[in-house]
C-alpha cells in the first residue's frame, strides 16, 4: 500500500498516532502550528477520504482515529524515498545516513548492532 501525505497531513496524523482517537479541538491543540478549527477539520476530512483516518460519532461531533499504522506510513515513505532519491538502493540510502557527520557515536553503535543482528538472522535463516 502506497501511503502519501502532505506536510500538514503528517502533522495531523502524528497527533492521532501520539494521542489516539481525538476530536477536532484535541487535534488542533496537539499541533505545533496554530491552524483554524475549520482547517484542521478539512485536513481530517481529506485524510478520511483517502482512507487514512476513520471517525466515530461522539455527541454532536466526531472522534477521529488513525486508520493506518505509523509504521506502515514510515515503510511506505522509506520505499518511496529509496526508489526516487537512491535509485532503489537501500545500500546508497544507508551509505548516505552513515556518512552524515551529525550521527553521534551512540547512534553509530546502535546502527552497527542493528546490522549485526540482521546479519545473524540472515545467517540463521540460510542454514
The gist of it:
The protein is 64% helix and 9% strand.
Question: What is the CATH architecture term of the largest domain?
Answer: Orthogonal Bundle
* Structural class based on helices, strands and sheet pairing: mainly alpha
What proportion of the residues is helical, as a percent range?
Answer: 55-70%
Largest sheet: 2 strands, antiparallel
Unreliable spans: none
So, the CATH homologous superfamily of the largest domain?
A: Winged helix-like DNA-binding domain superfamily/Winged helix DNA-binding domain
CATH class of the largest domain: Mainly Alpha
When the domains are counted, the total is: 2
Whole-Å distance between the termini?
32 Å
| β-strand amount | 5-15%
Explain what you see.
The structure is a single chain. The chain is 64% helix and 9% strand. The chain is elongated, with a radius of gyration of 19 Å. The two termini are 32 Å apart. Strands 1-2 form a two-stranded antiparallel ribbon. With 127 residues, the chain is mainly α. It has helices at residues 7-19, 24-30, 37-50, 70-85, 90-99, 105-125, and strands at 53-58, 61-66. It folds into 2 domains: 7-66, Winged helix-like DNA-binding domain superfamily/Winged helix DNA-binding domain (Arc Repressor Mutant, subunit A); 89-127.
